[in-house]
Structures are given as structure tokens and as C-alpha cells.
Amino acid sequence: MNEIVTGKLREGERIVESELAKTYGISRPPVREALMMLELDGLIKLIPYKGFEVTTITGRDARESLEMKGLIEGYAARACALRKETELVDRIGRVLDTMERRVADGNLQGILEENFNFHLLIVKSARNEKLLRFYESLTISIRRFYAVGLTKERSWKSSLIEHRRVLDAIRAGDPELAEKTARRHARCTIGRVTEQLKQREGDDVAIPAIDALGECQ
Fold first, then answer.
1. Which of 65, 116, 181, 210 is most buried, with most CB under 10 Å away?
2. What sign has the CA pseudo-torsion 200, 143, 147, 210?
């Protein structure tokens, strides 16, 4: 999966089951099972008589998936602010500190990983196991969208600022502001990703408007 998320396996590239088994030194049945799971996650698709290939990211897929992710993150940010757990807030802050160092180093993979850790900690704070499982499943395919939307240094820095605003609202114990800033961050992410994809595929993808809290960078 990591090869798909990072772009090592390109969109439309064919995946040969026998070659994967040879590369990882395992038999073909577990490889086939893993491929079927990746298909369910939307990362690959089965082409009749040809085998599997990496799916192509579209603006519509990215927008719809990221909208769902944003809804969960907004709800979770509100719940996190209501809990007022200092230790949890400090943990989230340390993740952002690490993300800031990754941004300074230009480490894209590290930025993406800390981005995921940031949101996962907040979603876990909602203490809803079904919601958490759904969120984790959703983010499997969404990681590829982040690799598209955070490819430029300006995007890295803007995303970091948005994360800080979410954390500040949570730290202040303001559930309404926490939800609004989290939802605004999600819309900014949608804008960054869909704009990149729109330029690439010529698709007319509408970028959601940003509310009065501020504009995306």
C-alpha cells in the first residue's frame, strides 16, 4: 500500500501478482488476499483478463472522500475541546511540533505521517469506536490525496498554520470554534487537492468557499 500512497506505483500501473510474491518472498494466496483488500479500499481495481492496476485519482473522488473526513474531524474537534484534557492536548501539540520540523526539513513523507497522527489523536478523543474504525478505513485511500495536495512548500506551511488554529481552539476549550476551524481546515485541504487535480485532468471541480474565520493560503 505504501508504494501506492507515495506514488512509487503510478496511477494506471499494472500490478503483477507473481512479481509481488517474488519481491516479498511469500506465496501467491496471501498476495491475492492483500490485493483484494486494496481493491475494497479503492487503491486498485481489477481489469478483466489483465489483472489489477492502480486506480486514477479524480477530483470528484477526492472531494467526496475529503468532505466525509472533514465532517468527522469537525465533530471530533468539538468533542476534544469539551473534554479539556490537558495531557491529550499536550500530545497533540507535540505532534504538531514534529510536523513543523518535518516542514522545515522538506520531508514530505514525514509531514503526511504527522498530519495523519494529528487528526487521529483528535478523532480518538471522541471515544466512539465505530466512528474511529470508519475514519481509519476512510484515511487509507485518502492518504494519496494528501500526497497530491501537499506537494508544494506553501501548502505544507499553510496546512501547519491551520492545524495550529485547530489546536488553539481545542486548548481554549471552545467547542464551537474547534469544530469551525477543523471544518475550515478540511475545506482548505479540499481546495488544495482538487485544484491540483483540476489542472491535471481538466475537470471542472468546484472548490468550497471558506467562511469568515479566514481564507486558505
1. 181
2. positive
